[in-house]
Design a protein that fits this description.
The protein is α+β, with helices and mostly antiparallel strands. The longest helix has 14 residues. The mean pLDDT is 94.
């Protein structure tokens, strides 16, 4: 199976490594793996890679509305890193049920602590 993150690689050789527990090497790889986790319905991975200071108390991808989301693609616009901090700007497209496609643009912030990258927060456009 090709990786949902949009890189032309097999899932096991791409985001599957990070989902299995290996630390993502940079914020860009983490962001792509988090997108793939939404596509594949992996809430435990999403919570584990969310910085504790901003992590929501619960993330239920099994609720009826979340199950209706069909992810259509990811486009990375920019990746900037400075030491243990990074930003990734991306556009993700999705559809809820049979509705029209929605474009979600975000500039996400990441931090590296203890050798692991974490999603902190983001600004949506």
């Amino acid at each position: 199976m090709l990786c949902p993150c949009g890189i032309d690689r097999e899932y096991e050789d791409c985001c599957g490594r990070w989902h299995a527990g290996a630390p993502a090497p940079d914020a860009l790889a983490l962001m792509r793996s988090r997108y793939s986790a939404y596509v594949l319905g992996l809430p435990d991975y999403l919570r584990a890679t969310w910085h504790p200071s901003t992590r929501p108390p619960a993330l239920d991808l099994d609720d009826p509305e979340a199950r209706r989301v069909v992810w259509l693609g990811l486009q990375v616009k920019e990746h900037r890193a400075a030491g243990d901090r990074a930003e990734v700007e991306f556009v993700a497209r999705y559809r809820v049920g049979g509705g029209s496609a929605v474009r979600m643009a975000e500039r996400s912030r990441f931090v590296r602590e203890g050798g692991r990258w974490y999603y902190v927060d983001g600004d949506t456009a």
